[in-house]
C-alpha cells in the first residue's frame, strides 16, 4: 500500500482556488468559499462557484463530503430561503443545510459574529481540565503545577485570541475566574504538604526530598515575616510612611 503524504495532497489541491471567482480559503482538507450576496444575481454566482468546485473534485477524484458542508449567513437579513446545492459522493445534488453557528479550526463562529458560545465552550473545557488535574495528583508543588497549567490549561484560553478577542466585561471575568481557580488550586496543593498529617496520609513523610521542601518552604516564610514588617507608625508627610523596615 502506497502512503500518500501531505506534499502529494497539497499538489493536488494547489489549483483549487483558481477555479472559483471569489475568495477561497484552504487549510489542510478544509475549504471555505466567501462571497457577498445581496441579490439573486450574486446568489447565482455563488452557486456557479459551488458547481465549479464540484466539477474540479470530479475531475481530480477528490470528492467533497456534501453532507458535512454548511452555509453560514453573516448578515441576518439575508434571504435564508435560498438553498445552495452540491454533488454528493453518489453524484446526486443535495441541498446544503443552513446553520447559525459553525466550528472552524476549533473556533465557533456565529451568524452575528459574537463569540459567547466559543468563550463558554473554552471556559467549560478549561474548568474540566483543572478538575482533572486536581483529582489526578496526590502531591504537586508550585513548579509542577505551573508547568502543567501553562502546557494544558493556558493554551485552551489563548488559542486564536486574535480572532475572538475579549471586549465584554462579563466574558473577561469568566475567563479570569479560571485563573483565579487555578491559583487557589495551586495554593491548596502546595500548602497541604506543609501539614505533617497530610504528608503522612500521602505516605511521603519518610521521603527526604519532601522533608527538605517542607523545611525550606516553611523557613522561607518565617524569614520573610521576621525580616520585614509594615511600619504602621508613620504619618502622612513622613518619609518613612508606608515603607518597610528591618526588625
UniProtKB/TrEMBL annotation:
Top-rank taxon: Eukaryota
Protein known as: Reverse transcriptase domain-containing protein
Organism: Mytilus galloprovincialis
Amino acid at each position: 500500500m502506497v502512503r500518500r503524504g501531505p506534499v502529494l495532497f497539497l499538489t493536488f489541491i494547489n489549483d483549487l482556488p483558481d477555479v472559483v471567482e471569489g475568495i477561497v480559503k484552504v487549510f489542510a482538507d478544509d475549504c471555505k468559499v466567501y462571497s457577498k450576496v445581496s441579490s439573486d444575481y450574486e446568489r447565482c454566482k455563488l452557486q456557479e462557484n459551488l458547481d465549479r468546485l464540484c466539477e474540479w473534485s470530479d475531475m481530480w477524484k477528490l470528492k467533497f463530503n456534501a453532507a458535512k458542508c454548511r452555509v453560514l449567513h453573516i448578515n441576518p437579513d439575508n434571504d435564508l430561503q435560498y438553498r445552495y446545492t452540491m454533488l454528493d459522493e453518489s453524484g446526486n445534488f443535495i441541498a446544503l443545510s443552513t446553520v447559525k453557528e459553525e466550528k472552524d479550526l476549533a473556533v465557533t463562529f456565529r451568524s452575528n459574529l459574537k463569540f459567547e458560545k466559543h468563550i463558554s465552550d473554552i471556559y467549560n473545557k478549561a474548568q474540566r481540565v483543572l478538575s482533572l488535574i486536581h483529582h489526578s495528583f496526590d502531591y504537586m508543588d508550585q513548579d509542577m503545577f505551573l508547568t502543567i497549567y501553562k502546557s494544558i490549561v493556558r493554551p485552551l484560553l489563548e488559542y486564536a485570541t486574535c480572532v475572538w478577542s475579549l471586549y465584554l466585561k462579563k466574558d473577561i471575568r469568566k475567563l479570569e475566574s479560571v485563573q483565579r481557580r487555578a491559583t487557589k488550586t495551586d495554593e491548596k496543593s502546595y500548602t497541604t504538604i506543609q501539614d505533617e498529617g497530610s504528608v503522612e496520609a500521602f505516605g511521603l513523610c519518610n521521603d527526604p526530598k519532601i522533608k527538605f521542601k517542607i523545611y525550606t518552604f516553611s523557613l522561607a516564610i518565617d524569614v520573610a515575616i521576621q525580616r520585614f514588617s509594615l511600619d504602621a507608625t508613620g504619618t502622612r508627610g513622613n518619609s518613612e510612611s508606608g515603607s518597610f523596615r528591618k526588625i
